[in-house]
From TrEMBL:
Protein's organism: Cohnella candidum
Name of this protein: Pyridoxal 5'-phosphate synthase subunit PdxT
Residues binding L-glutamine: 46-48, 105, 133-134
Any Gene Ontology CC annotation: cytosol
Family label: Belongs to the glutaminase PdxT/SNO family.
Reactions listed under catalytic activity: L-glutamine + H2O = L-glutamate + NH4(+); aldehydo-D-ribose 5-phosphate + D-glyceraldehyde 3-phosphate + L-glutamine = pyridoxal 5'-phosphate + L-glutamate + phosphate + 3 H2O + H(+)
Any GO BP annotation: pyridoxal phosphate biosynthetic process
Designated gene of the protein: pdxT
Pathway the protein acts in: Cofactor biosynthesis; pyridoxal 5'-phosphate biosynthesis
């Protein structure tokens, strides 16, 4: 499975490494033409406003919506989750607006800006090590969004058809099982 990592801004190399460890082939994506050859696309963590701005500038909004419209899977982590959301709690304009959820940015406040924890994730047998960095939270989900994980009663991972999101950074540990789950989604889509 060839999985692209949107390489406009953010944690790209780490995702490529995790995809490769999970048995796929990770590639950095800088041009929309590259999407044609991919089985799935990851939108990484970074700064969602910057990623959104660059996606608009380089034609990725249309191209990624088309890609997802064909049933190909998208995986948004941290800022990538924000980019996928239909609604932002702050009232800011949504970016891709594909996933039926309301997201709060930087939802942990100053005290807990960055931390690590173990999380139970649906579809993964034993707890997953999760790194949170100025992370968003999913405040509300609608339609057929399936909640995959919660931290202190707040939603931190979810799935809607071919869309997967996590508030945390699964690419910053050696535990690549969430990338494995995404590879399974790509296999099914094919
Ligand atoms: N705080 C960032 C944002 O709101 C997300 C942080 C991250 O991706 N680690 O875009």
């Amino acid at each position: 499975m060839k999985i692209g990592v949107l390489a406009l801004q953010g944690a790209v190399a780490e995702h490529i490494r995790s995809i490769n460890l999970a048995g796929g082939e990770g590639v950095a994506v800088k041009r929309t033409e590259q999407l044609d050859e991919l089985d799935g696309l990851i939108i990484p963590g970074g700064e969602s406003t910057t990623i959104g701005k660059l996606m608009r500038k380089y034609g990725f909004m249309e191209a990624v919506r088309d890609f997802a419209g064909k049933g190909k899977p998208l995986f948004g982590t941290c800022a990538g989750l924000i980019v996928l959301a239909e609604r932002l709690e702050s009232g800011e304009e949504a970016h891709l607006g594909l996933m039926n959820m309301t997201v709060a940015r930087n939802a942990f406040g100053r005290q807990r800006e960055s931390f690590e924890t173990e999380l139970d994730v649906k579809g993964i047998e034993t707890p997953l090590r999760a790194v949170f960095i100025r992370a968003p939270l999913i405040k509300e989900v609608g339609g057929n969004v399936e909640v995959l994980s919660a931290y202190k009663d707040e939603i931190v991972a979810a799935k809607q058809d071919n869309l997967l999101v996590s508030s945390f950074h699964p690419e910053l540990t050696d535990d690549y099982r969430l990338h494995g789950l995404f590879l399974d989604m790509a296999r099914q889509a094919r």
